[in-house]
Amino acid sequence: MAEQYRTNGSAALNIYTQENTARPLERPKKLPDAPAQEQQKERLRLVVSPFTILGGAVAIFMLLLVVFSLVRMFEEQSRVSELQQTRAALTQEQERLTAEYEQSLDLKQVEQRARQLGMREVQQSQIREIEIAAGDTTQVFDAPEERNIFEQVFDAFQSLFRDAVEYFS
């Protein structure tokens, strides 16, 4: 009779002898240890592109332009408000002086003073009339010379630089 086998999990057993019929596994040979390598400490190297530096410089420059423009705008707004207050005060003074002048004006007194100074009324023979035709006269206005955009930008930067130097000095 053929030997009968039964299994215990994945191991086959001889039922008469209760022995394991599985072949023993070959154990792999131990591999040699890898040679010890010196562990190099990797240094963190920061590499910055010249374009990054240029971009940063341009961004800082633009930020300074904005800040100085805002400072300049605030100063100009303060100046405008002071000038508006001065204008209002001068307008009131002008109205007061005009009213005072009109009250002090007396035509009889002016005529009397003119006679004392030796003045007399104009005679009809002393009046000369000259007519000038409207087509014979012209008015010429010179328009300011327009400057190109590069000159305007250069002047703006120059003005901003002067303002920055003046601000920090």
Task: Explain what you see.
The chain has 169 residues and is mainly alpha-helical. The chain has a domain at 49-107. 50% of the residues lie in helices and 5% in strands. The protein has a two-stranded antiparallel ribbon. The termini are far apart. The model has no long low-confidence stretch (mean pLDDT 81).
What is the CA-based Rg, rounded?
53 Å
The strand count comes to 2
The rounded distance between the terminal residues' Cα atoms is: 116 Å
The assigned structural class equals mainly alpha
Major sheet characteristics: 2 strands, antiparallel
Q: Mean pLDDT across all residues, rounded? A: 81
Give the strand order of the largest sheet, numbering strands 1, 2, ... along the chain.
1-2
Note the beta-strand portion.
under 5%
Residue share in helix: 40-55%
- What is the count of helical runs? 3
Could you list the spans in which at least 5 consecutive residues all have pLDDT below 50?
A: none
Shape: rod-shaped
SSE sequence, one letter per element: EEHHH
